[in-house]
Amino acid sequence: MKTVDLAIVGAGPAGMVAASEARGHGLSVAVLDEQEAPGGQIYRAVEAVAAQAPERLALLGEDYAHGRRLAENFRVSGAEHIDRALVWQLEPNGLWYLRDEVCHELKANRILLASGAIERPVPIPGWTRPGVMTAGGVQILLKSSGVVPDGRVVLAGNGPLLYLLAAQLLAAGCRIGALVETVPYARYLEAVPHLPAALGSGYLSKGVRLLRHLRSSGTRIYRNARDLRVEGEQHAEALCFHAGGHEVRLDSDLIVLHEGVIPNQQLTRALGCVHRWDDGQKCFRPETDEWGNTSVEDVLTVGDGAGIGGALAAEHAGRLAALEVARSLGYLQTRERDRLSTSSRRQLNKLLQGRRFLEVLYAPPEERQSPPDETLVCRCEEVTAGQVRTAVRTGCTGPNQVKAFTRCGMGPCQGRMCGNTVSAIVAETQGITMEECGYYRIRPPIKPIPLAALAAAEVDCELDDVAQ
Amino acid sequence: MFRRLSDPEKKVRMTFEGQDITAQEGESVAAALLAAGITHLRQTPVSGHPRAPYCMMGACFDCLVNIDGVSNLQACVTPVREGMSVHSQVAEKDLLHEDG
Fold first, then answer.
1. Which A residues in the span 284-343 are in contact with B, Cβ-Cβ below 8 Å?
2. In the prediction, which pLDDT does B90 show?
3. Do residue A145 and residue B60 have CB atoms under 8 angstroms apart?
4. Which residue range is the domain that position B49 belongs to?
5. A62 to chain B nearest CA, in Å?
6. pLDDT value at residue A460
């Protein structure tokens, strides 16, 4: 069985840059990723789009095209790219993955988890209906297939991605029926103190440009919207909400929801890394030091999976982690690591300071942490917020007990879609903090895999070990 | 609900519930189905309600389909293949019914 110095899970900006940097110092590196091509979700299909659809590359914008350079560097780095690999089990010095229906094992002296973010679930009544999608999902359709919404499209929520998607859809010739912002007015005041840091980061000028573009397109914008719900039985028919003292009902063929992104915690949780509630980002994140070392020995995590910092921050964090791994394996002296890290460290800090403004302004509205009783919280097992509250009132003390009693979080998504909401409801009902409440226990396989593939796996262990 | 900005250049032919679908090489099954106007990919096992792709990045598992006889595959992370036969996944509450 093969052993590499460094196994990286995820070929987004953090993973690609970490791989290139580590190879530059002589480490053997393998990068495992679910997609066919490197780029992660942010630069998804960037190589193919650049090669085959230049007009689509233009409408997706410069920030997307930037990913091409990362992919080029990664391709020539000499790192082994294991594409279409589903990592389903992790240990501190090895991992198991499924590829073409066969299980493989890979040993590694260090593991770097760079599995990125998922979109923060937006649990509102009716959000499970066909005709409701996430902004990231709609953007992936545009990036990877050149497929765009048709008909009456309503974008609802908040955050940079929602405005970016709106601008990209307009550039692609789509009409947007309305943009429904779920930013409470009070948030603007709360965010003001963080404005100076944001001015230096470049985020703000980009945001202002996007908003101006949106307004000049004539897109109807509703502000301070609350009590969102989707109407329609077999398919979403309308988005309903309160705004400006009125009840508004917008007929729609496609409702696009987005309220920011949160770390994808499945891998770090499964490995037993310590996680903390980040009240600024309103999400759980693995605890790390300044290099990305987790609480589990020989395991590091960087990029949005370690806390939301965005794609550019992920590059710098990836580079820092690679330098640290090179040091810990003896490829670099400590002094060399520190010298090589100064530029990335400085830029990373600047980018992260600039984000505070976005975090405060676009924190999810309170109603999302406490959805109405009828809202399906668990999309897989169809468990409502009301059922979770009842379970807590009848004695379930934490998310794992709620799971055992209601099946909430027990479906194929393994809690990705309901985890944060369930913890929030448990915390609210019991009057405890998110930190005290905690999160689901995540167990392998991280994604469902066929039993036949598991049975056929060659396990490298002595019979004596099994007997013990 | 969706349209293509341009016709597929490298075409891949597949079927959904026996209906012919033309996809673009390299795209996911979910993208191909949405572009073809198919929005109900499965029924949930609990209530039987229809579901469509939601996140498109392998996180939500709402796009589960049956491909060439294998159930529970994520349409959004499975690339299209020539001759692929895709079926909607219906609620199977009672396992005994599977063999008829």
1. none
2. 83
3. no
4. 11-90
5. 20
6. 65
CA–CA–CA angle A66, A71, A76 (5° rounding): 135
Q: Looking at the 3D structure of chain B, how many domains does it have?
A: 1
Q: Give the orientation angle of helix A311-328 with respect to helix A13-24, to 10 degrees.
A: 30
User: How far is residue A390's CA from residue A452's CA, in Å, rounded to a whole number?
Assistant: 39
- List the structure tokens of A199: 């001015």
Whether the predicted interface score ipTM is above 0.85:
yes
CATH of the domain at B15: 3.10.20.440
- Interface contact B59-A417, CB threshold 8 A: yes
Cα nearest neighbour of A47 on chain B: B26
Is A412 in contact with B61 (Cβ distance < 8 A)? yes
Tokens encoding A435 = 């930190």
A264 touches chain B (CB under 8 A): yes
First and final CA of chain B: distance in angstroms? 35
Residue B27 located in a structural domain = yes
Rounded to two decimals, the pTM is 0.95
Q: Is residue B62 part of a domain?
A: yes
In a domain, B31, yes or no: yes
- Asked if A144 is an interface residue toward chain B (Cβ–Cβ < 8 A), one would say yes
B86 occurs within a structural domain: yes
Neighbouring C-alpha atoms within 13 Å toward the C-beta of A390: 11
* B73 near A CB under 8 A: no
Q: What is the mean pLDDT of each run of 10 residues along chain A (468 residues)?
A: 94 98 98 96 96 94 96 98 96 93 96 98 98 98 96 96 95 94 94 87 81 88 97 96 96 97 97 96 98 98 97 98 98 98 96 92 95 97 98 96 96 96 98 97 92 85 53
Residue of A nearest to B7 (CA): A146
